[in-house]
Amino acid sequence: MRSVSFRREREASWQELEDLIALADRDGVRALTAGQLARLPHLYRATLSALSVARSISLDQALTQYLESLVGRAYFVVYGTRQHLRSQIWDYLSWRWPAAVRRRWRALLLAFVLTVAGASVAFVMTRDNMDYYYTFMGEMAQGRTPASSTSELRGVLYDNDATASSMLGTFAAQLFSNNARVGILAFALGFVVGLPTAFLLFYNGLVLGAFAALYASRGLSIDLWGWLLPHGVTELSAVMLAGAGGFTIAAAIAFPGVKSRLENLRDHGKDAARIVIGCVIMLFFAGMIEGIFRQTVTSVPVRYTVAGVTAVWWLFYFLVVGRRREDEDRLARGEI
Amino acid sequence: VTPPAHVYRAEARNALLRARREIVTPEGIPISFTLASVGDRAAALFIDLVIMAGTTLAVVTLANLAFGGGFRGSWLVPLIIILLFLLLNFYFAFFEVRWQGATPGKRRVGLRVIDGRGGQLEASAVLARNLMRELELWMPLRFLLGGSELWPDAPPWATVLAGAWIFVFLLLPLLNKDRLRAGDLIAGTRVVVQPKPVLVADLADTTMSGHQLLFPPGMMTEAAPPPPPPQANPYAPPGMFPAPPVVPAPAAPAPRRGGPLFTFSEGQLEVYGEFELQVLENVLRDTGGIDREQTLGVVAEKIQTKIAYSPRISPGQEERFLREFYAAQRAHLEKRMLFGKRKADKYKK
Which of A52, B102, B106, B294 could link B44 by a cystine bridge, Cβ 3.0 to 4.6 Å? Predict the structure, then answer.
């Protein structure tokens, strides 16, 4: 019988593939020798074509089921994430992240507008009536209220004795992990059409605006921004990016366009994840600046210089870095 | 009344078939996987959570042992905070990238993450599906372990509402047919059962062994139901498909030593189709059933009646008869296949 001899001729190579996969599963793909690694895709394709031949010439159910299982098993190894972790990280930093941010500039713009709107509303309202300060800040006031004297408020900005230097690292790490959690949450909440994300961003803006209004009313604006911006440039950008990630997901659900919502989610979700991972990295640096640099350096010009440098760096990074690779990629996918 | 074992088996098989999902590999060949059951996924998650909790405990204990109680305030604390953050948010993603879509828990249970469209599983997809855990897993957990941080003095109704809203995400895999959680939705991934390739012997290629399973001849005649009359297709309007032709068989030639004991005419092999062939394959391969001998007897009887096989086989030859009929039927149908003429079942021409 044809199907019987077909099986006899190929059984050995199927067994070889089975053994290779068992090895890769037990010890990782890296455990395979160069020869075995080169053999793997070859054997996979041979088995795949054997499956498609078996489907057309053999009625042996056990054989087609075996081949399908074997191909499925090999498929994980061949089409699992195979790239080296280190090169993936490099790829990500050198172009995938800034490219994803550029691609989703509308979502980022929306996040920016919401933050600025929140800040402006709170600033104007608090400037005219200081009672709003309590409304906007709630629990976060921490002794920095309109009832505090100007020198107390000023003290908060330059006080570097409050925390022992050994605690600075802990402070920075806590800032980072809390902020990053909120960032990831802003991204994840995009799944509920982005409304909580929008609220989170707007609220973030409100706090900023109320705080700015309080310090402005005492003529401490320059000192305040010197205190806020060194880490704030990075932190605020990161929060807006996290929000942009959330909006990217929300857009896939709310405005599906020609594709189905599920298809859209797949494309948008990956971009959103790329943006948010970057936001975690940014928040790490922001936490370091906020927790260590700001607590030790009180010179206003130095604070503004650091803020300026970080601003220029992020603008350069998101606008310039990786454009060539991005264009190559779009060309390869036929988008341009 | 307890339904017989084969009903259970049929139900289990149907449940498996319902969970099959086809993907098309980048080479353009469709292969199918079985979706992981929600129970299996919960088990895998539980194992991973235990590992994470164990790691956390080990790190804190080690730090305590190494530095006594006085490690608070040292450089170790920020390190531990960051380590725990990374563990909580990147444990799953790290393993799924490194181990081709499996975490330690998934590996133990035998599950894998694949791209829903059959493409390469991208690192960004793995990250997307696991970052959603903040919303799906950690928030409900934190909510359970102590009130929401987002709203400290929430009234009770808000707590109930928020709880219900959050648990919708936990229940999402139960509410859609592909058992996707929110993370799978945004990453376009699916969690499937890792298939176990087992190559069993070809029924048509084995020299007969173990077919001489003899049982009392009297038992056979009692167990076998009276042969049913040939029936027309009950699903077709009367007259559309006539009853399958029953071709009178020529007298079987004398059996050769070592060769096939039974021969079948072209007409006898035209009666059944691929579906019946596969049912027969399952019957022959199912060696676990306690009622195997009885089943083989009933099936052999039915087939003989249907294809008008004469003279009837003698008791004790049922398995050999079925195996040889299987081989002949398969050879016949495969030959038809080569000419592009497939016969799905006995109702098709």
Answer: B106
Q: How confident is the model at residue A309 (pLDDT cuts 50, 70, 90)?
A: very high
Interface contact flag, A1 B331, Cβ < 8 Å? yes
DSSP string, B215-250: --HHHHHHHSPPPPPP---TTSPTTTSPPPP-PPPP
Dist. CA A203–CA A133, nearest whole Å: 13
Nearest to B334 among A7, A52, A57 (CB): A57
pLDDT in tens, A109-147: 999 999 999 999 999 999 998 888 888 877 666 667 788
- The chain-wide mean pLDDT, for chain A, equals 87
Residue B331 CB contacts under 8 Å (≥ 6 apart), including other chains = A1, B204
Q: Averaged over A262-280, what is the pLDDT?
A: 90
A87 and chain B: CB distance < 8 Å anywhere? no
User: What is the rounded average pLDDT of the residues A319-327?
Assistant: 92
pLDDT, position B224: 41
The complex's ipTM works out to 0.87
Chain A residues touching B31 at Cβ < 8 A: 51, 68, 71-72, 75
As a whole number of angstroms, the distance between CA A138 and CA A285 comes to 27
Residue positions counted in chain B: 349
pLDDT of residue B4: 65
Contacts of B98 in chain A (CB under 8 A): 28, 81, 85
Distance in Å, alpha carbon of A272 to nearest chain B alpha carbon: 7
For residue A29, give the DSSP letter. G
CB contact under 8 A, A176 and B337: no
